[in-house]
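lol forgot to send this yesterday, sorry. C-alpha coordinates for the thing we talked abt
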Protein backbone atom coordinates (compact mmCIF):
# COMPACT_ATOMS: atom_id res chain seq x y z
CA UNK A 1 0.00 0.00 0.00
CA UNK A 2 2.83 2.42 0.84
CA UNK A 3 4.49 1.66 -2.49
CA UNK A 4 1.29 2.48 -4.46
CA UNK A 5 0.83 5.70 -2.48
CA UNK A 6 4.47 6.68 -3.19
CA UNK A 7 4.09 6.02 -6.94
CA UNK A 8 0.86 8.04 -7.16
CA UNK A 9 2.41 10.87 -5.13
CA UNK A 10 5.50 10.91 -7.38
CA UNK A 11 3.39 10.99 -10.56
CA UNK A 12 1.30 13.88 -9.23
CA UNK A 13 4.37 15.78 -8.13
CA UNK A 14 6.08 15.40 -11.49
CA UNK A 15 2.97 16.35 -13.44
CA UNK A 16 2.54 19.62 -11.52
CA UNK A 17 6.22 20.61 -11.45
CA UNK A 18 6.91 22.88 -14.45
CA UNK A 19 10.58 21.98 -14.52
CA UNK A 20 9.58 18.52 -15.76
CA UNK A 21 7.05 19.67 -18.34
CA UNK A 22 7.65 20.18 -22.04
CA UNK A 23 10.31 22.78 -22.75
CA UNK A 24 9.18 26.21 -23.88
CA UNK A 25 10.51 26.50 -27.44
CA UNK A 26 9.82 28.70 -30.44
CA UNK A 27 10.81 28.55 -34.08
CA UNK A 28 12.07 31.74 -35.73
CA UNK A 29 11.94 31.19 -39.48
CA UNK A 30 14.32 33.32 -41.54
CA UNK A 31 14.79 33.31 -45.31
CA UNK A 32 17.96 31.23 -44.71
CA UNK A 33 16.32 28.60 -42.45
CA UNK A 34 14.86 27.88 -39.02
CA UNK A 35 16.25 28.96 -35.66
CA UNK A 36 15.14 27.19 -32.47
CA UNK A 37 14.77 29.33 -29.36
CA UNK A 38 14.32 28.25 -25.75
CA UNK A 39 12.31 30.69 -23.64
CA UNK A 40 13.16 31.54 -20.02
CA UNK A 41 9.66 31.17 -18.53
CA UNK A 42 10.86 31.43 -14.94
CA UNK A 43 13.34 34.27 -15.48
CA UNK A 44 11.08 36.67 -17.41
CA UNK A 45 7.53 35.26 -17.41
CA UNK A 46 5.78 38.44 -18.55
CA UNK A 47 8.22 39.06 -21.40
CA UNK A 48 7.96 35.42 -22.51
CA UNK A 49 4.17 35.67 -22.46
CA UNK A 50 4.30 38.87 -24.57
CA UNK A 51 6.70 37.39 -27.15
CA UNK A 52 4.66 34.18 -27.38
CA UNK A 53 1.37 36.12 -27.73
CA UNK A 54 2.62 38.42 -30.50
CA UNK A 55 4.42 35.59 -32.30
CA UNK A 56 1.50 33.17 -32.24
CA UNK A 57 -0.80 35.96 -33.52
CA UNK A 58 1.57 36.34 -36.51
CA UNK A 59 2.56 39.89 -35.56
CA UNK A 60 6.27 39.25 -36.19
CA UNK A 61 5.79 37.77 -39.68
CA UNK A 62 7.50 40.12 -42.14
CA UNK A 63 9.16 42.27 -39.45
CA UNK A 64 12.64 43.48 -40.45
CA UNK A 65 15.92 43.41 -38.54
CA UNK A 66 16.17 47.21 -38.58
CA UNK A 67 19.29 47.59 -36.40
CA UNK A 68 22.20 45.15 -36.71
CA UNK A 69 25.62 45.91 -35.26
CA UNK A 70 28.46 43.54 -36.11
CA UNK A 71 29.94 41.92 -33.00
CA UNK A 72 27.02 43.11 -30.87
CA UNK A 73 23.41 42.31 -31.79
CA UNK A 74 20.55 42.08 -34.31
CA UNK A 75 17.40 44.01 -33.32
CA UNK A 76 13.88 43.38 -34.65
CA UNK A 77 10.31 43.26 -33.41
CA UNK A 78 8.83 46.65 -34.30
CA UNK A 79 5.40 45.29 -35.24
CA UNK A 80 4.04 48.79 -35.98
CA UNK A 81 6.55 50.37 -38.37
CA UNK A 82 8.92 47.46 -39.02
CA UNK A 83 6.46 45.00 -40.59
CA UNK A 84 7.26 44.89 -44.31
CA UNK A 85 3.82 43.31 -44.96
CA UNK A 86 1.93 46.21 -43.37
CA UNK A 87 0.67 49.45 -44.95
CA UNK A 88 2.26 51.21 -41.93
CA UNK A 89 5.74 49.90 -42.84
CA UNK A 90 8.27 52.72 -42.74
CA UNK A 91 11.93 51.76 -42.55
CA UNK A 92 12.84 55.28 -41.37
CA UNK A 93 10.53 54.81 -38.34
CA UNK A 94 11.37 51.14 -37.71
CA UNK A 95 12.63 50.88 -34.15
CA UNK A 96 10.32 53.58 -32.81
CA UNK A 97 7.12 51.54 -32.67
CA UNK A 98 5.72 48.66 -30.70
CA UNK A 99 2.47 46.76 -30.38
CA UNK A 100 -0.95 47.95 -29.23
CA UNK A 101 -0.30 46.22 -25.88
CA UNK A 102 0.95 48.16 -22.82
CA UNK A 103 4.66 48.39 -22.06
CA UNK A 104 6.12 45.80 -19.70
CA UNK A 105 7.68 46.21 -16.28
CA UNK A 106 11.36 45.24 -16.34
CA UNK A 107 12.29 41.67 -15.38
CA UNK A 108 16.03 42.10 -14.96
CA UNK A 109 17.96 39.03 -13.81
CA UNK A 110 21.43 37.60 -13.42
CA UNK A 111 21.09 35.89 -16.82
CA UNK A 112 24.25 36.72 -18.75
CA UNK A 113 23.89 38.27 -22.19
CA UNK A 114 26.07 35.65 -23.86
CA UNK A 115 26.11 34.73 -27.54
CA UNK A 116 22.62 33.77 -28.69
CA UNK A 117 20.65 35.33 -25.82
CA UNK A 118 17.41 37.15 -26.70
CA UNK A 119 16.54 40.24 -24.72
CA UNK A 120 13.90 42.95 -24.88
CA UNK A 121 14.76 46.30 -26.43
CA UNK A 122 13.60 49.37 -24.54
CA UNK A 123 14.07 53.12 -24.26
CA UNK A 124 15.93 54.75 -21.35
CA UNK A 125 12.89 53.89 -19.21
CA UNK A 126 13.53 50.38 -17.80
CA UNK A 127 9.77 49.69 -17.93
CA UNK A 128 9.30 50.50 -21.63
CA UNK A 129 9.82 47.12 -23.34
CA UNK A 130 6.94 46.25 -25.64
CA UNK A 131 7.50 44.13 -28.76
CA UNK A 132 11.07 44.78 -29.91
CA UNK A 133 13.86 42.39 -29.04
CA UNK A 134 17.44 41.65 -29.99
CA UNK A 135 19.74 38.64 -30.28
CA UNK A 136 23.34 39.11 -29.16
CA UNK A 137 26.16 37.93 -31.45
CA UNK A 138 28.82 37.95 -28.72
CA UNK A 139 28.99 38.30 -24.96
CA UNK A 140 27.64 41.71 -23.87
CA UNK A 141 28.06 41.90 -20.06
CA UNK A 142 27.17 45.62 -20.00
CA UNK A 143 23.56 44.53 -20.71
CA UNK A 144 23.38 42.14 -17.73
CA UNK A 145 20.84 43.26 -15.08
CA UNK A 146 19.90 46.20 -17.35
CA UNK A 147 17.79 44.44 -19.99
CA UNK A 148 15.21 41.65 -19.66
CA UNK A 149 16.73 38.49 -21.13
CA UNK A 150 13.92 36.10 -22.06
CA UNK A 151 15.44 33.32 -24.18
CA UNK A 152 18.38 31.89 -26.10
CA UNK A 153 19.09 30.35 -29.48
CA UNK A 154 19.57 26.59 -29.10
CA UNK A 155 19.85 25.69 -32.82
CA UNK A 156 20.62 27.80 -35.86
CA UNK A 157 22.88 30.54 -34.48
CA UNK A 158 24.84 30.29 -37.74
CA UNK A 159 21.69 31.66 -39.46
CA UNK A 160 21.55 34.59 -37.04
CA UNK A 161 25.21 35.26 -37.89
CA UNK A 162 24.19 35.67 -41.56
CA UNK A 163 21.70 38.51 -40.90
CA UNK A 164 22.66 41.58 -42.95
CA UNK A 165 24.67 44.07 -40.89
CA UNK A 166 23.88 47.76 -40.66
CA UNK A 167 26.03 50.80 -41.21
CA UNK A 168 27.76 53.03 -38.69
CA UNK A 169 27.40 53.02 -34.94
CA UNK A 170 23.58 53.05 -35.16
CA UNK A 171 23.53 49.81 -37.14
CA UNK A 172 20.70 51.04 -39.40
CA UNK A 173 20.12 48.55 -42.20
CA UNK A 174 19.20 49.58 -45.73
CA UNK A 175 17.27 46.66 -47.38
CA UNK A 176 17.15 44.59 -44.15
CA UNK A 177 16.56 40.88 -43.68
CA UNK A 178 13.20 39.96 -42.16
CA UNK A 179 11.41 37.36 -40.09
CA UNK A 180 9.44 34.96 -42.28
CA UNK A 181 7.50 33.59 -39.30
CA UNK A 182 7.86 33.20 -35.54
CA UNK A 183 5.74 30.64 -33.67
CA UNK A 184 5.64 28.42 -30.60
CA UNK A 185 7.04 24.98 -31.32
CA UNK A 186 4.27 22.42 -31.25
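and heres what i got for the seq, position by position
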Amino acid sequence: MKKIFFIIFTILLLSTNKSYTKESKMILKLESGEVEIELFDKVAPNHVKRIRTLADEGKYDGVVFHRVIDGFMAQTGDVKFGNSNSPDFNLDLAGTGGSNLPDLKAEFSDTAHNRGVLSMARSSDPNSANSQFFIVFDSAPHLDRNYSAFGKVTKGMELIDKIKRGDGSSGSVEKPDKIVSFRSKK
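The helical segments are 2-16, 45-56, 157-160. anyway ping me if u want another try
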